[in-house]
Amino acid sequence: LASQQQARFEAALAKEQKIEAQDWMPDAYRKTLVRQISQHAHSEIIGMLPEGNWITRAPSLKRKAILLAKVQDEGGHGLYLYAAAETLGTSREQMLDALHSGRAKYSSIFNYPTLTWADMGAIGWLVDGAAIMNQVPLCRCSYGPYARAMIRICKEESFHQRQGFDIMLSLCKGTPAQKAMAQDALNRWWWPTVMMFGPNDDSSPNSRQSMEWGIKRISNDALRQKFIDATVPQAELLGLSIPDPALKWNEERSHYDFGEIDWSEFMRVLGGDGPCNKERLSTRMKAHEDGTWVREAAMAYAKKHGGK
Ligand code: 3HC
């Protein structure tokens, strides 16, 4: 029977048919989806913290309202993704326990500090720009609930990226001090964003299997290259210089050649030793602790009103 189920699963993948929650799937397929989707959700929720730091410091009511909407969106993305992960049989408590205990990861990029308002521009422009590159192919993921959650999320990401670029444009058209602030943010956020796509393909333990299962459609290095090729012209338009002396258009490859990535920094951040890892995780754990009464009240209410 198992071999028939395996054959049906593989036939569905081959026909690009979505695998749905009630379908049989190999345990390893389920496990890697819980790993990736829960970590994706953790990234969205933790990703609210760096930007949240600037909501009360925004330079105008308009910027404040936009940033508030973006951070709220990230929270919503986290909830869609936790819900998608729950269709695989895991629970919110298990996923949050894995995050709080350090067993689960979240995107490295959110372990860097947001030092000036220009960081709000750099994050929207670069980090959400990178997220769009990585998330659009996930709309074609073989697992139905994940693919459908990504379609909704990608629609909102394009606004996130555009408002970031708009902040950078305003600063670059402003005073020399404002342009210098935008350059400083680009200098600090460029390489961490390049690392966000994950390790090189030949040192990525999950890529081959994830590509065979139709979870990862484009490799880490190919997405990274796509991001760099798309972003260099935007930096030129802003009149900002990208902090990579080796960056150069390669006519033959028709891609930009770029410098060495400092993978030791990436591994340090993944190991919990980035600039803000401890602060991000303790903020999340405190918020979870402080929110216990809300969860208990909601459960008591649901019980009293028969789960409605
Ligand atoms: N930060 C933290 N961990 C990372 C990472 C990063 N930037 N890149 C890779 N890793 C981890 C992987 O999770 C894996 O560890 P694990 O096995 O314990 O999970 C290990 O490094 C090896 O990497 P692989 O390439 O082998 O792993 P994957 O095949 O899972 O690829 C990934 C990594 C490309 C991040 C993939 O998991 C993915 O596409 N995830 C979903 C998308 C996502 O999380 N995007 C980024 C954050 S969301 C965001 O940016 C929100 C936006 O609104 C700003």
Q: How many E-type strands?
A: 2
Could you tell me how far the N terminus lies from the C terminus, measured between alpha carbons in angstroms? 39 Å
Give the strand order, joined by hyphens, for the main sheet: 1-2
Roughly how much helix do the residues carry, as a percent range? 55-70%
The hetero compounds bound to this protein are: 3-hydroxybutanoyl-coenzyme A
Shape: globular
Q: What is the rounded Rg?
A: 21 Å
Q: Determine the mean pLDDT.
A: 97
Instruction: Enumerate the spans where pLDDT stays under 50 for 5 or more consecutive residues.
Output: none
Secondary structure category: mainly alpha
Order of helices and strands: HHHHHHHHHHEEHHH
State which percent range the strand residues make up: under 5%
